[in-house]
Amino acid sequence: MSHIIKSLTLIILLTLGVQASGLYVKVLSEPMEDVEDSLKESFTQNNLKEVARINIYEKMLKSGLAKKMGNDWNKNELSGLVSYIVCNGKLGMNIANANAQYAGICPIKITLIEDKKGTTLTYMRASNLTSDDKLKKELKVLDQTVIKAIEDLDSLSL
Predict the structure, then answer these.
(1) How far apart (Å, rounded) are the C-alpha atoms in residues 149 and 129?
(2) Calpha distance 62→56 (Å, rounded)
(3) What are the φ and ψ backbone dihedral angles of 83, each rounded to 5 degrees?
(4) In Å, how far are 56, 59, 69, 79 from 65, measured between CA atoms?
(5) Which of 33, 35, 55, 78 is 20–30 Å from 10 (CA)?
(6) Count of CB atoms situated within 10 Å of the CB of 105
């Protein structure tokens, strides 16, 4: 019984840790290719500029990682892993003006993870990085803009 209570406690703590970390997650049933087209449109509509698109999955394959890892390769059966680096210059400058040490927060990264169920988008909320009120205010605006761009996928044709 004690073992079960400890296990449940650990699960609850881990769940709270993910929520406290600020990871925003959106799960879609569509393939990554369709999601990417709509996401790029949403970036434009929400004044986010795509700085880079990095196909992480492809880079891992090209590097021979599957062979190096053997049986430990891709246990979750992912079929795609892509990160977008995006920024809004005005938001980035507002963050830098609030605290120059945080100037590197914008651009931000949105990661798309594809498996047989569809595509999951993840974004780490920047506003969880500080308790400084002035900076937190600017980081919340950034978070709201990025999350709106992701949520707007619901209204775009996928």
Answers:
(1) 21
(2) 10
(3) -115, 135
(4) 11, 9, 6, 15
(5) 78
(6) 21
Q: What is the pTM of this model?
A: 0.83
pLDDT per position as a tens digit, 6-64: 444 444 444 444 444 699 999 999 999 999 999 999 999 999 999 999 999 999 999 99
> How far apart are the C-alpha atoms of 110 and 53, rounded to whole Å?
10
d(CA 33, CA 39): 10
CATH fourth-level superfamily of 22-155: TT1751-like domain (3.30.310.70)
Kindly give the pairing relationship between strand 49-55 and strand 80-87.
antiparallel
Beta strands across the sheet bearing 23-28:
23-28, 118-124, 108-115, 80-87, 49-55
